[in-house]
């Protein structure tokens, strides 16, 4: 089964790892990394790490996963290319702007949070 995940993954931390491990327990893991410009557009701030740094960190941590950067122009292109059986989203994730569940040809599940009081990226950024 093809399991698709996506995210920014800035400063890969145990919360990210728990999310990706949960997703990978369901099948072959595909990870789409948000492009720098999209992160700034969606979150209103640029990631601390560049997309290439985040890509390298994920490849080191999840060597058996299929990992790629998102498409620069079309959020759904990687979804169409991969044709996943399921998308697993983080507990606090939303679909990209302009995308709804009806645009997807697979089911969506939401991963369980892992110590969000410690490992939520925005909290980690605030606390340095």
Task: Outline the structure in words.
The chain has six helices and five strands; from the N terminus they run βαβααβαββαα. It has 128 residues and is α/β, with parallel strands linked by helices. The protein has one domain: HUPs (Rossmann fold, 3-Layer(aba) Sandwich), CATH 3.40.50. A five-stranded parallel beta sheet has the order 3-2-1-4-5.
Topology order in helix (H) and strand (E) letters: EHEHHEHEEHH
Tell me the strand order in the biggest sheet: 3-2-1-4-5
Query: What name is given to the CATH topology?
Result: Rossmann fold
Count of domain modules: 1
CATH class: Alpha Beta
- Helix % is 25-40%
> Hey, roughly how much beta strand do the residues contain?
15-25%
What would CATH call the homologous superfamily? HUPs
Determine the number of helices (DSSP H or I, runs of at least 4 residues).
6
- Which structural class best describes the helix and strand composition? alpha/beta
The CATH architecture can be given as 3-Layer(aba) Sandwich
What are the main properties of this structure?
single chain; 128 residues; alpha/beta; Rossmann fold; five-stranded parallel sheet; globular
Write the layout of secondary structure elements.
Blueprint: E1 2-7, H1 14-24, E2 28-33, H2 36-43, H3 51-61, E3 66-69, H4 77-82, E4 86-89, E5 107-110, H5 116-119, H6 121-126
Parallel strand pairs: 1-2, 1-4, 2-3, 4-5
């Amino acid at each position: 089964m093809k399991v698709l995940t996506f995210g920014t993954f800035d400063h890969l931390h145990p919360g990210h790892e728990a999310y990706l491990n949960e997703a990978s327990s369901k099948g072959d893991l595909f990870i789409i990394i948000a492009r720098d410009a999209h992160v700034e557009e969606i979150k209103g701030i640029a990631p601390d790490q560049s997309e290439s740094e985040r890509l390298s960190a994920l490849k080191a941590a999840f060597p058996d996963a299929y990992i790629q950067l998102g498409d620069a122009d079309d959020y759904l292109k990687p979804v169409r290319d991969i044709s996943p059986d399921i998308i697993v989203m983080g507990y606090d994730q939303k679909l990209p702007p302009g995308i709804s569940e009806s645009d997807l040809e697979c089911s969506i599940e939401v991963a369980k949070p892992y110590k969000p009081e410690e490992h939520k990226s925005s909290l980690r950024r605030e606390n340095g």
